[in-house]
Design brief:
By secondary structure, the chain is mostly beta strands. It contains one helix and eight strands. The radius of gyration is 16 Å and the shape is globular.
Length: 97
């Protein structure tokens, strides 16, 4: 019985992964990925890849930020299976004060 409960619990956990690049296709290492509703987040690795594991099922706003680039937000629905979302960030205009 315990193994059955463990299998159900493990199956109900979602995962989010993908790659973050700029408009030229270059990776953005260190870009931040945040699930706005619960504060879970991570940073992209040296090749721009990221992964968030053990996520609750449901709808979440995914926010991606990187210094010098526009913020990107997307809605994601987690339902117990891996979800891949790749993001392309545009360079933000330089404002001189």
């Amino acid at each position: 019985m315990a193994s059955l409960l463990l299998a159900i619990f493990t199956f109900s956990q979602a995962e989010l992964n993908g790659k973050i690049t700029d408009e030229k296709g270059d990776p953005l290492p260190g870009a931040s990925i945040l699930l706005v509703e619960n504060g879970q987040g991570t940073a992209a690795d040296g090749q721009g890849f990221y992964q968030l594991k053990n996520l609750e099922n449901g709808n979440f706003t995914v926010q991606v930020t990187f210094i010098g680039h526009d913020i990107v937000r997307s809605t994601a629905q987690f339902s117990g299976s891996p979800l891949t979302l790749d993001f392309v960030l545009k360079a933000a205009p330089l404002l001189l004060g």
